[in-house]
Amino acid sequence: MRIYNGGETVGKGTYWSPVDGREIIVREELALPGDVDIKYLRVPRGGLLLIAPVFGLMYVFFLPLFGVGTFLAAWFAAIVGTVVAVALTGIKVCSGIVSKSVSFGWTPSSTYLAGKKRRARQIRSSEDKAGQNVRGKEA
User: Fold this and answer.
1) ∠ CA 97-98-102 to the nearest 5 degrees?
2) pLDDT (tens digit per residue) in 70-84
3) Assuming Cys at both sites, which of 6, 65, 121, 134 could form a disulfide with 34, CB separation 3.0 to 4.6 Å?
4) pLDDT: which is higher, 3 or 105
5) Are 91 and 102 in contact (CB under 8 A)?
6) Are 15 and 5 contacting, i.e. CB atoms less than 8 angstroms apart?
7) What is the largest CA-CA distance in the chain?
8) Is the CB of residue 51 less than 8 Å from the CB of residue 43?
C-alpha cells in the first residue's frame, strides 16, 4: 500500500483517509481533495470491508475502559480537591492559633528596594536638624 497526499493526481481506484475515515472512489484520473497534509491509502474495496469490523471491535473493546477511566479521573479530582480544602483549612486554623501569618510576614506586593527604613531615618534626622536650626536662630 502506497500513501498518497491530498492534491496528488491518482489513477482509478478506491482511496481511504485513515484520519477521518473518508472514502474517495476515483473512476478516472484526478487530484485527491485536500491539502498536502491529508494522507490517503489506496485500498481495494474488500480491504475496506475487512478494516471496518476491526475498528468496530476496537471501539467495543475500549469503550468500557474509557468509562472506567472517566470514573477514576472524576473520583481522583474529587479526592484531591477535598485534600486541598482540608489542608487550606488547617493552615487557616493554625495561623489563627499562633496569631502569626503562615507566610512569615512576606507580602509579595511590597518591595524594599528603595530603602524604606533608611529613608525614614534620613527624614527624621533632617527634621531634627531643622528643628535645632530654628531653635538656634530664636535664641
Assistant:
1) 110
2) 999 999 999 999 999
3) 6
4) 3
5) yes
6) no
7) 117
8) yes
Q: What single-letter amino acid sits at 89?
A: T
| Amino acid residing at 27 | R
Residue that the C-alpha cell 478506491 belongs to: 14
Radius of gyration for the alpha carbons in the chain, expressed in angstroms and rounded = 38
Sequence spans of domains, the chain: 1-43
Amino acid letter, 10: V
Residue with cell 471491535: 57
Dist. CA 86–CA 132, nearest whole Å: 60
pLDDT digits (tens, 9 = 90+) for 28-62: 999 999 888 899 999 887 887 888 888 889 989 99
Placement of cell 512569615 in the chain: 104
Between 132 and 37, the more confident residue is 37
